Amino acid sequence: MVEPADQEFEQIVLCNERRAGLRSIIAIHDTSLGPALGGVRMRSYPSHDAAVADALALARAMTYKAALADLPIGGGKSVINADPRSANRDEILMAHARYISSLGGRYIPAVDMGTTVCDMRLIGRFAPLSCAQRVDPGLFTARGVVRSIEAALMHATGKGVDGRRVAVQGLGNVGWNVARMLIEEGADVTAADIDEHKVARGVEELGITPAPLSRILDSDVDVLSPCAGGGVIDAAALDSLRAEVLVGAANNMLSSNTIAVDLAERGIVYVPDFVANAGGLMAMEAELRDDETGLESKVDSIAATALAVLERSAATNLDTVTVATEMAWTRVASSRTDQPYFAQAVTAGM
Prior knowledge:
By secondary structure, the protein is an alpha/beta fold. The chain folds into two domains: 4-124, Leucine Dehydrogenase, chain A, domain 1 (Rossmann fold); 138-318, NAD(P)-binding Rossmann-like Domain (Rossmann fold). It contains 13 helices and eleven strands. The strands form two sheets. A six-stranded parallel beta sheet has the order 8-7-6-9-10-11, with helices on both faces. Helix 6 links the parallel strand 7 and strand 8. Helix 2 packs across helix 3 (117-124) and helix 4 runs parallel beside helix 12. It is globular, with a radius of gyration of 20 Å.
């Protein structure tokens, strides 16, 4: 349910197309810096209210992510409340794409959990202003997460990744590449996934150490890297957390922002997800401009942003979520105009 507190959002579109069985949400949080760019997430939610809540939280985080990454785009997200294995998947995606198209470029879709580069090509037939049709952003998301892990370890211990023990939760496209890159840098990686076949493949191809999914969060490691669904770090997980550093790709991995305060009080170094996982957004924005020159170097600069957040947090005794959010809003406010972003209208006969 959309609450009065959500009036900070510029636009929330609730989509319903009975023939296709579509129920989806498009959330545009802030377009002060430019059109809202954000992924299309497709998954089954326990309720429609839960789907709405996820879309809003994800869109808000995209505003912060874009601002901290110094990108000329705003924050948005869309969520399709459906099983990505649905028999009429393409019909659902096309119905959602028609709603996106009706927004006239205010929201630019891209890949997310449950959607693929091929899906963006399909959506692009109805909403031509879309990205991640050519480049899979997952690789760049993983690269930024690894750079953030390096920055966090240097901040906490003065040492890098080599020889460190890292637990990765989730071996999807991003988690797989996080594990691979860490192993290439000399880390000892333990991993778990709901799909046992992915874990078996990781053992064979990457040399990971498998772990039960129910125990991955409390692994005795130096770094915990959640790379699956959000909300996994709650009060119960916090109580059993043994890692010194928490950095992952999962959006909104904390069940609430108060957990960030608890992490700081326990001395756990946490890089907010909207800082660490910005590499994918950088890749999508570069594709949108049709200019991927220097993209890897730009993604690597996430390490400097992560370090700046950690250093400011230490200097001010504020948790890293508060610090990173304040840094993001400073940039948004400095560029805010009196009106939200709308594409240039062309009116016949004017």
